[in-house]
Write a structure and sequence with these properties.
The complex is a heterodimer of chains A (about 280) and B (about 260). Chain A is mainly alpha-helical and about 280 residues long. Helix content of chain A is about 80%, strand content about 0%. In chain A, α9 (about 185-220) packs parallel to α10. By secondary structure, chain B is an alpha/beta fold. Chain B contains seven helices and ten strands. Chain B starts with a strand and ends in an 8-residue tail after the last helix. The chains are: A mainly alpha (about 280), B alpha/beta (about 260). The interface of A and B includes residues 6, 181, 190, 191 and 272 of A. The complex binds adenosine-5'-triphosphate and magnesium ion.
Chain lengths: ~280, ~260
Amino acid sequence: MSGSGNSATQNSATETLDPPMPQRLPTSLVEVGMVVGLLIAVLVLWEAAVYVFKPAPIILPAPSVIWQEFLLSPGYFLQMSAFTLYTTLAGFGLAVVLGLALAVGIVHSKFIERTVYTLLVALNSVPKVALAPLFVIWMGTGVEPKIAIALMLALFSVVIDAVLGLRSVDPDMVNLARASRASSFAILRKIRFPNALPSIFAGLKVAISFALVGAIVGEFVAGSEGLGFAILTAQGQFDTPRVFVCLMLLGLLGTALFFVVEACERLLLPWHVSQRGGGGSGH
Amino acid sequence: MAYLSISGLRKTYGSPRGPVTALRGIDLEVNEGEFVSILGPSGCGKSTLLKCIAGLEGTSAGTIRVDGQVLAAPPKDMGIVFQRDVLLDWRTILDNVLITAEFAGLKGPAVRERALALLGRFGLGGFESRHPWELSGGMRQRAAICRALLCDPKLLLMDEPFGALDAMTRDDLNLELARIWQDTRKTVVFVTHGITEAIFLSDRVVIMDRNPGRIVEVIDIDLPRPRHLAMRESPEFGRYVARVRHLFASLGVLKDDAP
Ligand SMILES: Nc1ncnc2c1ncn2[C@@H]1O[C@H](COP(=O)(O)OP(=O)(O)OP(=O)(O)O)[C@@H](O)[C@H]1O
Ligand SMILES: [Mg+2]
């Protein structure tokens, strides 16, 4: 009885489970299409408004002018973007490594929690951007202070969400592991960490944006490269189209980085509630 | 000497509204290969007692010995099924079952084979690469039982494993558990609030009452083995059920509707 019953449920389960996967692509394609459509609409409106109201080009250049500005020296803009991208990723990467290590320490030791964690929370209420000039004094005007500022801005959200995730584990999951005489490292690796991943990714998505802010701030304060530096030089020459090219590249960069983190999340957490295909899987 | 022996066990939880005595004066001996059920109303400390035996919860007084050793941490050769299935969502059913072996440092095709065989025995063949959320409640609980059995523990602790299941699945699993016990003669401590289930499965039924949680009676079940579901209609079985019901009625747990 149980044999035939199983194969029957199994087949029907396969049928109801498969559709959500292919369904996801069209849905996200539609979403992307809608966003692109909206952007094009805004650009067209913008172009039309500039054509009708004729503001001074130094106040608001038309999108076509901005595009021409980019075509004048694409190599320069791409080089500046690459530098900012590098700084952001380096700061973000370091923040992830350091942040996760700190979170593990905070969760496992009352002492680290009372000292490091308390300090971190206290420091977070200080506007960290104000510390940027100090970093330049300490580290010079190279890439290092920019990475450090990006790291500093990104670190907090990594730590907070990782600590939250590592703590919010079902006590019976830990009991299950303890009943099998698991070491506390095994519990961390096989229970606490995977359980914390959704929360960790929530933190990473905030952190990547903060890292980009940090990179730009670093370039504002002292620099000779990067989109932040390019914006400052263009501003000095009242070259508004150039400022707008940089801003748009910055927007593009920020969006792309966010979606890369989200793609990693989808790849790593196919099991999480937020990632499961809609409908079909429940009974 | 008994495989599991508990003497003078007291467990007090600290809570914001003062200490709560969950268990008091618990004395119990369970022999090797014996199937003992713990039966009692909600809140009488059944789960607490099981967690104390598992070494997962510290005790306030008294001693617990497993295989002669005073308990300080979870004992070796123990398997446990919790009141909720606690399957890990990020693992497939097979990997969920295998986790006890991983913690014990066992790997390789032999354990895998064993896990697959257990899943097959519990009607989960073909579901091994599914994730827990794709399974029904009953299937999840069966996977949790496979996980507890994987390392062939000598001591098996089960906390209302069939509590949330429908009557038919419950009968099915009662029978499967009785068979497994018959084959392997594990020492089992089985927590339940089902009177029929307790009598059907056990050599002895321990009756508990609450406020504070304590043992009020231990009933020997002298029914022949192996047992069949049909035995539940026999007059001897009925007498055991009546006796337990009467006991609970006198404790005020069950309302007696006799005239
Ligand atoms: N962690 C805890 N902290 C404080 N009190 C607790 C804790 N766990 C259980 N208790 C209390 O101990 C008593 C026994 O709880 P326990 O969970 O052992 O009951 P139970 O017999 O398993 O009930 P059920 O049949 O509903 O599962 C209850 O009064 C409960 O409120
Ligand atoms: Mg309970």
